[in-house]
Amino acid sequence: MAADADDSKYFVREIEKNNGCALKVRQCYLGDVGCVVWDAAIVLAKYLETEQFYDPSKGVNVWAGRSVVELGAGTGVVGLMAATLGGEDVSEFFPPPHYVLMADCIYYEQSIVPLVESLKLLSGPETCIICCYEQRTEGVNPKVERRFFELLKQHFSCEEIPSDKQDPEFSSPDIHILHIRRKV
């Protein structure tokens, strides 16, 4: 396909990594939710690079040798970021993954029950689910969020990550990051 034909359908979203490299994802001009690099995905991708997870100068890289599952991948930018930070070929998911990453999965009413069930099936006692979502205040969204957290808290505990632990440039008051773990 000619480059100019591609340019009419896609544009490039570029997420600069802390090491100066860039993660480039082609986003469709037109399409459904899976064609968009959502703001919550960028916030979560940059959170994965914060020094608590990844600081090569101090020998910190929690992503190296870890199994990671991304739910609600959309364009896959969060999983791609995790892979560039140390993901290896992990061909099986059992034992349960070390991390489950979710960006903007809490918006579609019909997916709430299957989403919580998927989290229950995927996660083990050591799994950390990192959930990033944009809090939406219009329409059915507040009800959907409430229902998700009601179901989730039956089996999981949640810890909201304060803004000072997030990437200083890529954060927003309406985008929340949570660490979610199975209750023991």
From TrEMBL:
Coiled coil: none annotated. One of its GO terms (cellular component) is protein-containing complex. The keyword Transferase applies. It comes from the Eukaryota. One of its GO terms (molecular function) is methyltransferase activity. One of its GO terms (biological process) is methylation. Keywords: Methyltransferase, S-adenosyl-L-methionine, Transferase. The keyword S-adenosyl-L-methionine applies. PANTHER family: HEPATOCELLULAR CARCINOMA-ASSOCIATED ANTIGEN (PTHR14614), PROTEIN N-LYSINE METHYLTRANSFERASE METTL21D (PTHR14614:SF44). This is Valosin containing protein lysine (K) methyltransferase.
